[in-house]
Amino acid sequence: MADALLGLFFKPFIFENLPASEQSITWTYLDQAAKCDIYIGLFGKEYGYQDENGISPTEHEFNQEKFYKHLIAQAEKHLKSLQSK
């Protein structure tokens, strides 16, 4: 059962609750991570299998979020520089 109060403010994506699909697993979780306004990662000593490059799905999600945050920060910096001219 979902928390009624948190449900007013957040819509968590829980990968394990998805039904079977023909869509790529990797695409599914990275697509959902890209749509997040907030990414909260809970990490332990071990957090999933590693792909052929030695990177887990959790690490791919985290890296994608860092990449998008970097792009947003650069865009905001550029906009501020344009506004100050």
Structural description of this entry:
The protein is mostly helical and 85 residues long. The protein has a domain at 58-85. The protein is built from three helices and no strands. Helix 2 packs parallel to helix 3.
Descriptive key words:
85 residues, mainly alpha, 3 helices, 49% helix
Global mean pLDDT: 76
Regions with little confidence, pLDDT below 50 for 5+ residues: none
Helix content: 40-55%
Number of strands: 0
Strand content: under 5%
Shape: extended
- Based on the structure, what is the oligomeric state of the protein chains? single chain
Spatial separation of the terminal alpha carbons: 53 Å
Helix-strand category: mainly alpha
Largest sheet: none
The arrangement of helices and strands along the chain is HHH
Total DSSP helices: 3
Rg, rounded, reads 17 Å
Short structural summary:
The protein has three helices and no strands.
Question: What is the secondary structure topology, with strand pairs?
Answer:
Blueprint: H1 4-7, H2 25-35, H3 57-83
Helix pairs in contact: 2-3
